[in-house]
Amino acid sequence: MADLSLLQDSQEDTDGLLDFVSQDEMLTPLGRLDKYISSENIFNRQMVARSLLDTLRAVSEDERDCVSVLEQIDRLADDSEPTVRAELMEQIPHIAIFCQENRPSIPFAFSKYLLPIVVRYLSDQNNLVRKTSQAALLVLLEQELMERGDVESLVCPVLVDLTAPDSSDDVKTEAMAIICKVAPMVGRDVTERLFLPRFCEMCCDSRMFHVRKVCAANFGDMCGVVGGEATEELLLPRFFQLCSDNVWGVRKACAECFMTVSSASSPDVRRTKLSSLFISLISDPSRWVRQAAFQSLGPFISTFASPSSNASQFFRDEERSGAQTHSTDAEAVCAQQEPAGREEQDEDRAAQTAESLTADDSQKCLPSSSEEIPEQELFNSFHFWRTPIPRIDPELELLEEDRRPSAPALDRKHLQELIENLEPHIDDPDVKAQVDVLTAALRATALDSGLEDAFLEPRAARSNPFSSQQPSELLSADTQRRVTRDDDDSDASDCCLHPEDERKSKQQDVVPQALLEQYLSMTDPSRAQTVDMEIARHCAFSLPGVALTLGRQNWHCLRDTYETLASDMQWKVRRTLAFSIHELALILGDQLTAAHLVPIFNSFLKDLDEVRIGVLKHLYDFLKLLHQDTRRKYLYQLQEFLVTDNSRNWRFRSELAEQLVLLLELYSAQDVHDYLRPLALCLCTDRVSSVRWTSYRLVSEIIRKLSSCSSLLVSFLGELVEKFCHSQKWSGRQAFAFVCQLSIEEECLSLDQFSEHLLPPLLQLASDPVPNVRVLLAKTLRQTLLEREYFLSSVNCQQVALEHTLVALQTDVDKDVKYFASVHPGSTRLNEDAMSTTSSTEHLTSCGLCPRGPSLALLV
């Protein structure tokens, strides 16, 4: 009995629930809205806010109902529950878009009902509601759903009021952030009148550094909106204050936006004021600030380029191809103690350069030769031990203990023996220093004997069998002049270059010399220890933009740095250079590329796969810039791309196939037949399907390339028939059908040549035991060949065989083969149509009305 009563109660509850649901369904959309908008259940009111858009769509045909829904939205906006208000604000942009699309039915809906809610929520006490309203405001501005007058009269004054001194710190910080994002959308006029005075005031806010940090992070955007005149008069003084702020996070934000600030400034201000300011950031006591400054150094240098060069294009893309930006979450470690052990040599060097940049004269940007340099500064690695070192000044006492006058007189043989003996212990820093000194002495002797090229040429070029440049061609003009001058001097000490002379050899007048020296120092090993382990990669990423700024006439300033980066032990650094070497080649031109970039390019070809992929992805872009004779030498090396460190790296081979398609236009038909053809056939038999299908397109393009030479074409087509059409593997026979289909669709060869060489073996595949091969054959015949009038006319000698093959495929045992060989592939009675067509042709043949077999007119 108890169980029975339980069942009855359960049945009654179910009936009550069903009655409730049925009553709910009986209500109109407005009725349900009125019922639940005043519910005491918070969840019900949230569901009302979430379903407002659906309700509007349901009543969109009636203007009065739409107005009623909008009035209910205004009522819901006064809800005391923050989650309900936040849910409503999330729906506001979608409702606004709907109102804009249905503007004739509900005019002025947004400005009268929705915009006041957004403006009111900007100052809501709840953080979640404020954040949601800010996001909604940005969406409305991006979609241009707000009238300019409404933005200026309603939104902007509220944002300015939220940044008043009596506002809370969180509200002030959020309001300033939203002002910086709204400024580019509202334009220069509104920004200068409403936002700029408060922005300048917030830059000097002494209460909360968070507000100053927000201003510093968005300083570049604000400069870009107001223009150069307002930037120099009002904003730059505040920017100088922010760069010297007591909080390192503010200074770091300034360093990160330095490029955009410089772009909005005049060239004179950029050279005389911003350069010295940037040097102070590079020498900042905080490691995080120095790290951000060095990352922005290359982009900042690019702003010195002429407007026509567009050097800053290398830094505006957020996605760094092959080299993603390394960022450190400084706030996560702000509690840690700042590194205090920064080397004194960095401080001295940065201080000297900062002082030298304060003068207006560009010549004063260089360190004064009359200044006394500490002895330890003369021996640091930045000045002496960076490779390659042309010469050593014998006046410097490099080896003070027992320095014998006969030491410089060692011949080349003895120096080489000493270096070979010390190389097994190269890991020892002291031994490495001795090896560097001996190597420099060996270079000095090479200069006297006219053999300097053996050491200045990169290692990869010396081992490259395809390098045809003479050693003298690999030297810059400046180096050759020094060699000629030194050969005329009989004194060995005169050929040694003083550090001051080495510095002068890298001087230019495009950017302040101090900035360039700081950029060149990014390859110094000490920088990795005191600034950032990834600093060399940032230098490599910035190098094309810096090279474009300096111009090819100043390439000698960057050549040593580029070669140092190309031999860096971190593969990520070399990978970055590999991805951008084609851009650098375009900047330098064919002569400098052949002399300086080709040897490094050759070394990248033998590097890790992570580096080789950068070269491979832009192989065509680089080779097309080379001379034809130099370009042809790489035909021998293309086969090396088939060998990878990991055989599962199939994307490497797929990229090779895509590049080979582009490379066809750079070589003659004979070279394509001799070198690219074997690679294409090898890729066609790859284990990965994606590589094979890409290679089939490569084969069809080779056919197009060889069509100009009949003998090469006939030979290649015969090889295709032998290797693929008669292959023991069904995938090879299927590949032959697909290549034939591509050759016709892409018009790679004439129809007469196709009918003579490829059509007969193609039709033989009709009896292939594998249905997949017959399916592709049916598609090729029905969808490609029979679309050409040539194969429907009696001129074609293969017409009879083509007719019989198509009939055989229409009666195939496999339904998929029948489908693609049928007369009407889109019909629902495919099999019946195919069978009826076959019966008709057989009847005509038996009656003697079709002596040559079934007509293609009936099959088409």
From TrEMBL:
HEAT repeats lie at residues 155-194, 235-273, 758-781. Keywords: Phosphoprotein, Repeat. Residues 497-507 have a biased composition (Basic and acidic residues). GO terms for molecular function: protein phosphatase regulator activity. PROSITE patterns: HEAT_REPEAT (PS50077). Residues 313-372, 460-509 are annotated as: Disordered. Residues 379-406 form the Putative WW-binding domain. It comes from the Eukaryota. InterPro entries: ARM-like, ARM-type_fold, HEAT, HEAT_type_2, PP2A_Regulatory_Subunit_A, WRNPLPNID. PANTHER family: SERINE/THREONINE-PROTEIN PHOSPHATASE PP2A 65 KDA REGULATORY SUBUNIT (PTHR10648), SERINE_THREONINE-PROTEIN PHOSPHATASE 4 REGULATORY SUBUNIT 1 (PTHR10648:SF8). Regulatory subunit of serine/threonine-protein phosphatase 4. May play a role in regulation of cell division in renal glomeruli. The PPP4C-PPP4R1 PP4 complex may play a role in dephosphorylation and regulation of HDAC3. Plays a role in the inhibition of TNF-induced NF-kappa-B activation by regulating the dephosphorylation of TRAF2. Serine/threonine-protein phosphatase 4 (PP4) occurs in different assemblies of the catalytic and one or more regulatory subunits. Component of the PP4 complex PPP4C-PPP4R1. Interacts with HDAC3. This is Serine/threonine-protein phosphatase 4 regulatory subunit 1.
